Amino acid sequence: PEQAARMKKLQEQEKRQKVEFRKRMEQEVSQFIQATGEPRRRFQPMNKIERSILHDVAEVAGLTSFSFGDDEDSRYVMVFKKEFAPSDEELEAYRRGEEWDPARAEERRRLRELAAQQEEAELETGPAPPGPPNDYKDKYRHLIGSDAAKAAARTMEANKAYGCVPVANKRDTRSIEEAMNEIRAKKRLRQAEDE
């Protein structure tokens, strides 16, 4: 009975703390809504329950909220006014733990556009000719000289010992089909003898 009473007291205390925390967050959020020059607000790191309360308060107030941070101790909530809802790029920056800099993002966007335009121009003019920009033999000229490669590249002659054999030189004049049929016939004969 004593333990149950203590548990009940603890639960009530927790509930009270949650209610007080929610009231405090509601006040902070309404201050944030009234602050004109503040498009977003970053809150102190808080635990999971407190974050969920703050997300709920923000949602009720018609704001957008996200949690950032890697480990439980340092996770924090950022609340955004609807008209300043963050872009995917902005969210990515916060997830990486960086500050969001709109000017830098704009610069990055311009560079991306420029790269895309260059790519389009390359597509229209056709690709650059394949091959290395310089002659690799220049690099090794001190080792191989300038006429080494020409001397090494003799004209190729077919070796008569290899390759196609004229029909006249064949000992077996049967076609492949005839040879295969003969092999199959011998096999059948052997099987019939074994039985």
From TrEMBL:
GO molecular function: nucleic acid binding
Region annotation Disordered: where it falls in the sequence: 91-139
Domain (R3H) ranges: 19-82
Superkingdom as given in the UniProt entry: Eukaryota
Compositional bias segments (type: Basic and acidic residues): 92-113
Protein's name according to its UniProt entry: SPAG7 protein
Biological classification of the source: Eukaryota, Metazoa, Chordata, Craniata, Vertebrata
